[in-house]
Design brief:
heterotrimer, A alpha+beta (154), B alpha/beta (120), C alpha+beta (152), A: 154 residues, alpha+beta, seven-stranded antiparallel beta sheet, globular, C: alpha+beta, 37% strand, binds magnesium ion
């Protein structure tokens, strides 16, 4: 993919992430320096993209940040089912992916972009990579915690 | 009270719809996690309004909307989707969906849309 | 889209066509129904599906199974660490399994497959759908692997 189009796709995904965070949990996440999540338990959501854009969006944060986001989405009310944190994170990522692809199809007319259902992974010393896909990681920090988005397109 | 059925696989959206419509003329009666269950619940509750997700397991929103319109051509549906591209919007309109909102929606956006569709 | 399709037989067939090609002796054990949140293996490969069908497939490998498969693919007797070449081999292997499996489905629309993502870690949990998933387990020489899937 040409560098220019890649940068554009990354920019649109970042825009979608920042907007959804504002609209959904009223949290302003700003780009920050590279960091390493030192928490033992991390949560990652992966959404694949196919169609006129082939790639994936990978969002990652520590479990505490995920729990805070889910709790804020749930209007501050505790969950009856603790697994709902993951279901909420899936929907959070889905909204980001949906917004990003909407922007992409507006920008690059004439191609349908499709999202695969969000897959969530949580665990100790989690390592995630998509071989053979050029990607860019953007680090974010906000009052709900820290996040990174790893955006990769073929 | 006007009955609202939420057909959406996300527990978050059910909660958000309930919050948006509470203390109004609307009563959110239940949540169906997919279109198939949604059609059964439609028979059970005979809701005045349905909020309908697009991406769901088993039976997606587009198929569900078609099936609902086939059952009742005057059915009132607000489609809620994370995707908001033109293709989906025009498809929804063609099927006979009454309104479309992008996720995440603002509570007052949903309330106003619901009132407008039902003329209350 | 309305789905009543199972990936069970297509995945088992895909394995039967692919694994022997790489000199891997394996056997299918069973299919079990999982919950929505499940414990995963230490090495996992994920692909997402959409268009013809929507869903996710995870190939779950023990370290031993991952190294054995890599050795089979690159034509070595034994491999001791999972390096870049090994990760690429696993990624290609995952794409082959997914392609073969979906090609066996009797559906009219071609299925898109997202690029495989490799997920490693300790005590990993996964949720690939908001509905329960299915898990196929296999024996591979002295170890095991599994394929979990969910079609939405
Ligand atoms: Mg959904």
């Amino acid at each position: 993919m040409q560098q220019e189009k890649f940068s554009e796709l990354v920019m649109l995904t970042r825009k979608a992430f920042e907007e959804i965070c504002m609209e959904l949990v009223s949290c302003e996440f700003s780009p920050c320096e590279r960091f390493i999540l030192e928490y033992p338990y991390k949560t990652a959501v992966i959404i694949g993209m196919t169609g006129s854009v082939n790639g994936r969006i990978h969002l990652e944060c520590d479990l505490e940040t995920a729990a805070k986001i889910a709790l804020t989405m749930n209007f501050g009310e505790r969950f009856d089912n603790p697994n709902d944190v993951y279901a909420y994170m899936a929907e959070f990522a889905n909204m980001i992916g949906g917004r990003a692809t909407t922007y992409m199809s507006e920008k690059f007319l004439g191609g349908e972009i499709r999202l695969t259902p969000p897959a969530i992974f949580s665990g100790k010393s989690l390592g995630i990579l998509t071989p053979n896909i050029p990607s860019q990681i953007v680090y974010y920090s906000g009052n709900l915690g820290r996040f990174f988005i790893d955006i990769g397109y073929k | 009270m006007l009955k609202v059925l939420v057909i959406d696989d996300s527990p978050f959206i059910f909660k958000a719809v309930k919050k948006a419509l509470e203390n109004s003329v609307f009563d959110v009666v239940d949540n169906a996690g997919n279109g198939k269950i949604g059609l059964e619940m439609y028979e059970k509750y005979a809701p005045d309004l349905i909020t309908l997700d697009v991406t769901m397991p088993i039976m997606d929103g587009v198929e569900t909307a078609k099936a609902l319109v086939a059952k009742n051509p005057n059915v009132k549906i607000i489609m809620l989707s994370a995707m908001g591209d033109e293709a989906l919007l025009s498809q929804a309109k063609e099927i006979g969906v009454s309104g479309f909102l992008r996720k995440p929606f603002k509570p007052e956006e949903l309330l106003n849309k619901a009132k407008e569709i039902l003329g209350v | 889209m309305t789905t009543e399709i199972s990936l069970k037989e297509p995945l088992i067939q895909a394995c039967s066509e692919l694994l022997p090609k790489f000199g891997l002796k394996y056997s299918f054990v069973e299919e079990i129904s999982e919950k929505t949140l499940n414990s995963a293996e230490s090495i996992n490969l994920l692909v997402g599906l959409n268009h013809g069908i929507q869903g996710n497939i995870i190939l779950g490998l023990t370290s031993q199974a991952a190294l054995r498969i890599v050795a089979g693919i690159i034509g070595e007797d034994e491999v001791f660490t999972l390096d870049n070449q090994g990760r690429n081999a696993l990624s290609d292997f995952m794409t082959m399994i997914a392609r073969k499996a979906v090609s066996k489905l009797e559906i009219s629309t071609a299925v898109d497959i997202s690029p495989p993502t490799l997920i490693t870690g300790d005590t990993v949990f996964s949720m690939i759908s908001k509905i329960p998933s299915q898990k196929l387990s296999f024996n591979l020489e002295n170890t095991t692997f599994s394929i979990s899937y969910c079609i939405e």
